[in-house]
Design brief:
This protein is an alpha+beta fold. Among the domains are: 64-186, no CATH class; 220-301. Helix content is 38%, strand content 11%. It contains eleven helices and eight strands. A hairpin with an 8-residue loop joins β6 (123-124) and β7 (133-137). α10 (278-286) packs across α11 (288-301). The protein is elongated. The relative contact order is 0.10. The protein binds zinc ion.
């Protein structure tokens, strides 16, 4: 955790937290961050975390969604942070993001439309370059995802691929390879299209950190206003360090308790391994309501 004063720039505080991870995170590196972090200036957070080697997965603020022209002369368009060939049918320009409270039918219907749009997207062609650039290939570049009359090889592709309405001989955006810079929508560009099921599965890994916060605030500890006495970021940071260490012990204790094992702290203190008998197991199941209480007792006893 990196603590910053309330109201300070989220990007400044967030970047310091990512930097502190250093080399402890192996490749490939992905960073899932909520809207606070891609709603700051690109040079404050989105670009620096890319330069640290992270692919970013964000949620988009409704204000960030929309259509912009692609690089000049390339016949491409940006939609919600993804570059598409302008052969994309207009009916697929504006698609709602899939949301968890939609019905299964609605989610499936939207996902089919997102997949139809995905065929026209520019996708990464190679790794990021040190100069802050990356090449992307268009939908009719082999292996093609659409059939475009201007790209004869793509026309030999499977008939199950969509055929674009491009006019032979008129320039289009299907068969190009385009170099994008880090400064091209780093707050919106992601490895997966925003609003798809793949994006949802990826972004919703954030429940991991949310459940940790719930543990800190209510499920295991009760860190609220007044929990730390005194003021100052240094004091809070130091005390929070002890608090998180204690939380860690509680999590370890519960994990081992459920499996009738001695937790690492108990082992360190030289306590006896719990007996593992079927009767004990039965008693525990019968008294499962008392389970939480017994772990709290253990906590205050230490
Ligand atoms: Zn085309």
């Amino acid at each position: 955790m990196n603590l910053t004063p309330a109201g300070s720039n989220k990007g400044v505080g967030g970047l310091a937290a990512v930097q502190a991870l250093g080399e402890s995170i192996p490749d490939p590196r992905e960073l899932i961050a909520d809207r606070a972090y891609n709603y700051v200036k690109n040079r404050i957070f989105p670009i620096p975390v890319w330069r640290l080697g992270y692919a970013t997965i964000y949620d988009l603020h409704p204000n960030q969604r929309g259509i912009h022209p692609g690089p000049e002369g390339t016949h491409t368009i940006w939609i919600d942070g993804v570059l598409y060939a302008d052969s994309l049918p207009e009916a697929l320009y504006d698609l709602d993001p899939i949301e968890t409270d939609m019905s299964d039918d609605e989610r499936a219907r939207l996902e089919r439309r997102h997949q139809a749009r995905q065929a026209y997207a520019y996708v990464p062609h190679d790794a990021c370059h040190s100069g802050g650039t990356r090449r992307y290939r268009g939908p009719a570049v082999q292996p093609a995802r659409v059939r475009c009359p201007n790209n004869p090889v793509s026309m030999r592709g499977s008939l199950s691929l969509p055929t674009t309405s491009c006019t032979r001989g008129e320039e289009c955006g299907c068969g190009r390879t385009i170099t994008l810079r880090d400064t091209d929508y780093p707050d919106l560009r992601m490895p997966v299209q925003h609003g798809t099921l793949a994006w949802e599965a990826s972004y919703h890994r954030r429940v991991g950190i949310e459940s940790l916060f719930a543990d800190v605030k209510q499920n295991r500890l009760h860190v609220h206003r007044g929990y730390f006495r005194g003021f100052g970021i240094s004091r809070y940071t130091l005390l929070l360090g002890f608090t998180l260490a204690a939380l860690n012990l509680l999590i370890l204790f519960d994990w081992h308790f459920k499996r009738e094992l001695l937790d690492p702290l108990g082992r360190y203190l030289g306590e006896r391994e719990p007996e593992r008998t079927p009767q004990r197991r039965l008693r525990r199941i019968a008294a499962s309501g008392r389970h939480e209480k017994s772990s709290v007792t253990a906590e205050s006893g230490r």
